[in-house]
Design a protein that fits this description.
This protein is of the alpha+beta class. The chain contains five helices and eight strands; from the N terminus they run αβββααβαβαβββ.
Amino acid sequence: MKLSSKLSNLLCGMLLIAAPLSANAGSDAAAASSKSKKARRSGPVFSGWVAAESQLRTRPAARPSGNIVISSVNEPKNVVTVNIYNADGSFNEEALDQLNRVWRCRRTQTEKQIDPHLFEVISHVYDHFQKPLTLVSGFRNQKKTTSFHYAGSASDLSVPGVPDSRLKAFVEGLDTGGMGIGIYPHAGFIHVDIRPEPSYRWVDNSPPGSSDMGQPKTNRDRAPNS
């Protein structure tokens, strides 16, 4: 009886020692798993690169129809429908003025003459998808004057019902050189601008409304949209 009692006590003691060790091991394993998942989810917020020559068009795309149907995300019910060309193929100044109004800085209500070649790209987008477009951001009257938004040659754009990746791929197919094209997966739009060569591409995973969207997160030679 005494021997049996001693064995029973010994076993109980071993179990009491093993229990916290097992709990700690489980806790450590859970923490490691959480860190592993976090590491898999994390990645560079910004990634940009110069577009390879082999990825650009070798010939300009055919001229678009000139038709654009678009509204600003700030005024979704104010849909503007224009054709940027006159019958002789020149730019229609009245239509450009209407679009300049849509592209105005929403913070200061300042308008600027937008590069009409950007509108030609926008017309290509409308011709292809045949859906009203949404302008997220156009001209920005800001202190950082190196921005293509400030220069009046950039737009942040989306097409309701069209995945941003598909929209980006189409716009990239128009580039013969001298375009900046970026995608913002968490914000739900792409950026397109007309710029000096070389063309540039980027992915920006900043959260919606982030003040540093489109800004360098690491050192690089050329900013996509300073």
